[in-house]
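Fold this sequence, please.
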Amino acid sequence: MKLYSAYRAPNPRRVLMFLAEKNISGLDVVNVDLNQGEHRAAGYVAKSPLSTVPALELDDGRVLTETRAICTWLEGHHPEPNLMGHDADERAFIEMADRRVELYLMAGLAHWIRHCHPGLAPLENPQFPDFGRSQGDKVVAVARWLDHELQTHPWVAGERLTIADITAFCALEFARGLMKFVPGELGFQALQGWRDRMNERPSAKVL
């Protein structure tokens, strides 16, 4: 199998961290250079029609191109350690947490970065800085909610590490590097403490 990734991009990093947490090895990881536009090349578009990364090419030639779908496939074929829920109830609550951080935290941060950071101009053309700044303001409210959640339980989805923690961590790290978004500086100490614990995990070193 081949995993098409992109260095330091948040969604590919989610899959790489997922692989590391589950101790899955042996995939052929192919880096797609986004700055050089390799994700728009005809050969890659044939695999990923929307020019997105990551993409997992299975041994039978089929290709999965959405991060959550890739992780679902990996979880199904490598069920332990479990990161997505052992039964229907747990799976539903973990998915809810993961979708919340993906749609409201990660997406907001991505819009902020893509429309406000000059280095992202080649990937987001045209940029709309006013829109980006508005998303940055909304992200602070989402971070406040997540900080409150982490005051009541140690991990994003409850009492143990799950895919939701990976999604939230990759989102925050992407923003920390490009927009200097540091939860502790905004008074979100529970969120900062959780981020620092995540950063100590071996999977956080995989890029």
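The chain has seven helices and four strands. The chain has two domains: 2-77, 88-205.
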